Amino acid sequence: MDPDRIEPFTIEIPDSDLVDLGDRLARTRFPAPLPGDSWDTGVPVAYLRALVEYWQHGYDWRLAERAINAWPQYLTNIDGTRIHFLHVPSPNASALPLVITHGWPGSVAEFLDIIGPLADPASHGGDPADAFHVVIPSLPGFGFSGPVPDSGWNAERIARTWAELMRRLGYDHYGAQGGDIGAGVSVALGGAAPGHVVGIHVNGSIGMPDPDASEAEQATMTDLERRRVASVQEFMREQFGYVAIQSTRPQTLAAALVDSPVGQLAWIVDKFREWTYPREALPDAVIDRDRLLTNVMIYWLTGTGGSSAYVGYAQPPPETHHESSTVPTGVIMFDHDVGIRRYAGAANITTWTDIDRGGHFAALEEPNLLVEHVRGFFRDLRSR
């Protein structure tokens, strides 16, 4: 058997899986609301009930399935694990290949609105010279890549896997883009394949400030930088719980997430509320409700709530991860994200742009801004 074999893939969820989901949703045992039933203690029960009601009676997975299947998808096996990916070649033969990596709790569904503008800018009001051959893998342990068979899937190992994927696709020179875990993987890809990666673009997830920065150090910061330090301090006080659980007991968590669709929904939607902009808005007021549920469905239907937590477990905490790469790196930092350039380690940052709106899920919240920034960053790197 050809070890480099790549097989076409189409999502075809059995009707029985959807019937089972509907039955589970109908039998949901909701918790009693805590005093106030507010976001301060997690997803409010009243909000969760309304979202589940829509999931059961208004959401159509088959529409979402067709939307994803509209783009070419494939499977291959690299380093002992299955890798699912979208591969959308541009009609412009001279386009630059670009591998885009999601994070947690995201999926390939994050990028559905930016594939067309990146691969075929001429059809979306852009310059044909800015075209990309788009490659979007599902992280090992996530979605249709399925659970990982072994340990050690940190950013560096995933980066080596992406380098091999791009080699199999016949791409010798390419760019990398990502946010969250995808940002760490993209930077690591620059270290794993520096002769092949022409540029790295990240949204957020780089330059994490020290929450214990001294008053003297903060005195040298801008107002924006001090606000980002305060945001990290607030995160460590009030939002770090999910990290502690996923990084210490992912198997225990998996028993709940893989068995309860509403548990999986609440676990994910809590982060979409905290990490979208503005934070005070309901998550489905910022991101289309159907797209939000499609993202949750990918975790539910593939049973990867636990394995995705396990891969997150393999990632080093931000304060111990120092990005190191000689590859030109472009950064767009939306309002929710907290990166500060001086803390960006050894990354070779050539472009850093702070934006006064937008959240952690850039491709879902601000797709046009993200696309324009990616196009602009790679414009001078295509001939490298």
| Order of strands in the sheet with most strands | 1-2-3-5-4-6-7-8-9
Q: Which overall shape is indicated by the principal axes computed on the Cα atoms?
A: globular
Element-by-element helix/strand order: EHHHEEEHEHEHEHHHHHHHHEEHH
**Any guess at the CATH architecture?**
3-Layer(aba) Sandwich
What ranges have pLDDT less than 50 throughout 5 or more consecutive residues? Answer: 318-323
CATH superfamily: Alpha/Beta hydrolase fold, catalytic domain
Number of domains: 1
Keywords:
16 helices, Rossmann fold, 384 residues, single chain, 16% strand, 9 strands, 9-stranded mixed beta sheet, alpha/beta
What does this structure look like?
With 384 residues, the chain is α/β, with parallel strands linked by helices. The protein has a single domain, classed as 3-Layer(aba) Sandwich (Rossmann fold), CATH 3.40.50. 43% of the residues lie in helices and 16% in strands. The chain is built from 16 helices and nine strands. It has helices spanning 15-26, 45-57, 61-69, 112-119, 155-168, 181-192, 215-219, 223-238, 241-248, 250-257, 261-275, 283-286, 289-302, 305-314, 362-365, 367-378, and strands spanning 6-9, 73-78, 81-88, 96-101, 132-137, 174-179, 197-203, 324-333, 346-354. The chain has a nine-stranded mixed beta sheet with strand order 1-2-3-5-4-6-7-8-9, sandwiched between helices. Strand 6 (174-179), helix 6 (181-192) and strand 7 form a beta-alpha-beta unit. Helix 5 packs across helix 6 (181-192) and helix 9 crosses helix 14 (305-314). It is globular and about 60 Å long. Residues 318-323 have low confidence and may be disordered.
